């Protein structure tokens, strides 16, 4: 840690670290354990990190699947609702959103909420003209 002064939080952390270190040293002494540095070959290190890389690859695959699912979603109704019917359609969606939430269908409610946000932005743009 680098600082001009030791804060209360830093002091607590340092004291806790020292406390744990003391417990570990006593345990090692009681059990005749002499800590020593672990030396690994490059191959051992690479195999360890390759296991971590598999986790990264899984996350990348999961993200790609989510993006693909998002791309398959139907286009927003904002592209198809006539401008003069937009406000009524927003009110209709709002009612559907409330009903979905009431029925504990929160995913549908969230989808409707997002759709409403898109339509409201479109309505703002239309009204600004």
UniProtKB/TrEMBL annotation:
Q: Which InterPro entries match?
A: P-loop_NTPase, UVR_dom, UVR_dom_sf, UvrB, UvrB_YAD/RRR_dom
* GO annotation (BP), single: nucleotide-excision repair
Swiss-Prot/TrEMBL keywords: Coiled coil
Q: Which residues form a coiled coil?
A: 83-129
Identify one Gene Ontology CC term for this UniProt entry.
excinuclease repair complex
Q: Which GO terms describe its molecular function?
A: ATP binding; ATP hydrolysis activity; DNA binding
Q: Where is the UVR domain?
A: 87-122
Name of this protein: UvrABC system protein B
Per the UniProt record, the source organism is bioreactor metagenome
């Amino acid at each position: 840690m680098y600082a001009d002064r030791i804060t209360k939080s830093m002091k607590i952390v340092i004291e806790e670290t020292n406390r744990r270190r003391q417990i570990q040293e006593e345990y090692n002494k009681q059990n005749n354990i002499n800590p020593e540095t672990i030396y690994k070959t490059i191959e051992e290190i690479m195999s360890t990190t390759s296991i971590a890389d598999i986790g990264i690859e899984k996350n990348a695959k999961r993200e790609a699947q989510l993006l693909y699912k998002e791309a398959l979603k139907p286009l927003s109704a904002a592209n198809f609702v006539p401008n003069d019917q937009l406000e009524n359609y927003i009110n209709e969606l709002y009612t559907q959103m409330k009903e979905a939430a009431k029925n504990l269908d929160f995913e549908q409610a969230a989808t409707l909420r997002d759709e409403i946000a898109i339509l409201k932005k479109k309505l703002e743009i239309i009204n600004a003209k």
